[in-house]
Amino acid sequence: MLSILDKYILKRYLGSFALLLVLFLPIMVTVHIAEKVGKIISKDVPAGEVLWYLLDFTVYFSNFLFPLFLFISTMFFTSKLAMNTEVIAFLSSGVSFNRFLRPYIIGATLVCAFALIFSSVFVPKASSGFNEFQGKYFRSGNDMNTTNVFRQINDNENIYVSNYQPSSQTGFDFTLEHFDGIELKYKIYANRIQFRDSIYVLSGFKKRTLLEDGEIIERAQKKDTIFNFDIDELTPTDYIAETLQFSELNEFIELEEKRGNSSLNIYYVEKYKRTSIPVSAFIFTLIAVAVSSVKKRGGMGMNLAIGIVLAMTYVFLDKVFGTIAEKSTFNPWIAVWFPNIFFAIVAFFLIRNARR
């Protein structure tokens, strides 16, 4: 059963968090639309599409920012409790610091559970709408291009293109290798491959078939043919992992591993963030209470200043290690969870100090 203390703090905890979301999300949307309004007007985007885009934008970015909002809101209302000497009153009445933390832990559990459901159900759909709108109206064709794509399309065939343009469904320096076990049977080259009217058009075509006593070489300036792969799957966009449910994401990663995708870390980073971001609610809550429950000479402003520095440090580490993992062979699990592990250690020492 929740005591009066639990209900009082839990109400303030959840209420402050909800209030901060209501205040800051409209500001975030307004700033974003003000930045993009020129492109929206110049491309005559329908009002209905803009409204859906703004809704997707709000859902998409609130998923990343909610730990910071929670941290700042917890810092704010706990600092008010400390400034009004309410924390001292609680502890002086015989309530231990651990008991004082209980409603915060309950609140963090509720927020974490909601965040897990939110990121699994609503965020993938919002991410799809947000990125599709960005690609349709805000990104140039060159921004969507990918380079040096190698894919295993089945157990016997590999394909490669040096550059792929999704807007025109065109790839350059195309190669297809067909194996029988480990033995190469034939190899197809083309300066350009383009998907047109359900047919693949190969320019600068060359096929080299290997025989026991030699080889056969076929050449053609242009050749129409059919392959057993979809050109849109030649190289999936980087954000595709964000648009998938958790089970779908695991299946997608397994498929990409079989295809020999060299950019798997991008998808693993997204997978691990599905759980690391909600868990950060606990860590930020503990740090916020430890820092702001002590009445300081600088008052509430000092607590908020410390909180903002810690929050920005978390964002910095999250972005740096996430980028390192996506662009290198660095372990993606370590990259995603390092900020949480680091700040969990910080939270442990801050809580131990606050108990004194």
What does this entry look like structurally?
The chain is of the alpha+beta class. It has 2 domains: about 5-135 and about 265-355, no CATH class; about 155-230, lipopolysaccharide transport protein A fold, CATH 2.60.450.10. The protein is built from 9 helices and 6 strands. A 6-stranded antiparallel β-sheet has the order 1-2-3-4-5-6. Helix 7 (about 265-290) runs antiparallel to helix 8 and helix 7 runs parallel beside helix 9 (about 330-355). The longest helix has about 40 residues, at about 5-40. It is elongated. The two termini are about 30 Å apart. The model has no long low-confidence stretch (mean pLDDT about 85).
List the helices and strands and how they pair.
Elements: H1 4-42, H2 47-83, H3 86-92, H4 97-121, H5 123-138, E1 146-152, E2 157-165, E3 170-180, E4 183-196, E5 199-211, E6 214-225, H6 246-259, H7 264-292, H8 299-327, H9 332-355
Antiparallel strand pairs: 1-2, 2-3, 3-4, 4-5, 5-6
Features:
single chain, about 350 residues, alpha+beta, lipopolysaccharide transport protein A fold, 2 domains, 6-stranded antiparallel beta sheet, 9 helices, about 60% helix, about 20% strand
Distinct helical segment count? 9
User: Which structural class is indicated by helix and strand composition?
Assistant: alpha+beta
The poorly predicted ranges are: none
Average the pLDDT over all residues and give the rounded result: 84
DSSP E strands, number: 6
State the strand order across the main sheet: 1-2-3-4-5-6
Q: Ends: how far apart?
A: 28 Å
Largest sheet: 6 strands, antiparallel
Tally of structural domains? 2
Which descriptor suits the 3D outline?
elongated
